[in-house]
Specification:
With 175 residues, the protein is mainly alpha-helical. Helix content is 66%, strand content 0%.
Length: 175
């Protein structure tokens, strides 16, 4: 509304003020209630956001821990495989060395090598014909047999727990 002086300001009527004051009190209370409700909903929303953020952080931490666990297991398996490969190479080298030693032993155990060593190092030689004497030995069977009876202890009269104990001892080799 415009007053007569060319002002764009609203004209207040003092007679309507008490009604406006009562309305404004009601409005103020309503606004306060709305503000409280807005604040409460805002607090609830922030709490829910915090819960969601916590759950997201927890899930991320859990995934990182699981990922590190899997990586650690793969690293352990890889390390064990390297160790296994190294031990296999060492085993093959030792087997080759053992075969070489076995061949060396077999070649040194030949009759001709033994004869050469006996002649050279020990000064031995083959006996001459006049140094050889033959002895006749009658061949007879001298094997003697002794009557031996093998008996097994009869534990059928023993209680079941003693038989079970004996069986366990036999199984474990603790006789």
């Amino acid at each position: 509304m415009m007053n007569g002086y060319g002002s764009n300001a609203y004209r207040y009527d003092y007679a309507e003020e008490p009604e406006e004051e009562t309305l404004s009190l009601r409005e103020r209370e309503y606004e306060k209630a709305q503000k409280k409700e807005i604040v409460l909903t805002e607090i609830k929303r922030k709490k829910e956001d915090k819960k969601i953020k916590r759950s997201i952080v927890f899930n991320i931490v859990l995934l990182v821990v699981l990922g590190l666990t899997v990586a650690f297991r793969y690293a352990s398996v890889t390390q064990i495989n390297y160790e296994n490969h190294r031990l296999e190479k060492e085993y093959e080298a030792l087997n080759a060395e053992a075969e070489n030693i076995q061949l060396n032993i077999e070649s040194n155990m030949s009759i001709s090598e033994i004869a050469n060593e006996a002649e050279k190092r020990l000064g031995m030689h083959k006996p001459l014909s006049y140094q050889i004497k033959y002895i006749n030995v009658d061949a007879m069977d001298q094997t003697e047999y002794q009557n031996t009876e093998f008996t097994k202890e009869d534990v059928s009269d023993a209680p079941w727990y003693e038989r079970a104990y004996e069986n366990i001892k036999l199984f474990l080799g603790l006789i």
